[in-house]
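Re: the request from the purification team.
They wanted to know what the chain is likely to look like in 3D before they choose a buffer screen. I agreed to run a prediction and write the result into the notebook, where they can find it.
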Amino acid sequence: MKPVKYALAMLFVGSSMAMAAECVQPEAPTLPDGASASMEEMIAGQQAVKSFQAENVEYMRCLDEAMQKARVAVEKGKGDPEANQAIYADAVDAYNEAVSIEESVAGQFNTEIREYKAANPS
């Protein structure tokens, strides 16, 4: 590999790692089993989901900032355009994944609520 290409590759890896270090993806919570959980466990699950959602919003804001910085760098011709476009694409992919995970967690928790209600009729 030519030294210039190697240096650009390392710059790209370093930039991507910097974005990754700044934006920390929250871990999805473990949800209670609605069919067998107590009310306290369901409330704790709800609180865990709300906490996850708040952390995920911050994560997505961070990714949005990374996308904007990369887009501006490309528009202004700063740095390596290919690296900036790759950073932008990676941030977009991570953002979309974060949205999907949040939707999945919320959907699964709603399923657990329905199962809880079925197992504990009022």
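For the purification team: Helices lie at 3-22, 39-76, 81-119.
Please add any questions underneath this entry.
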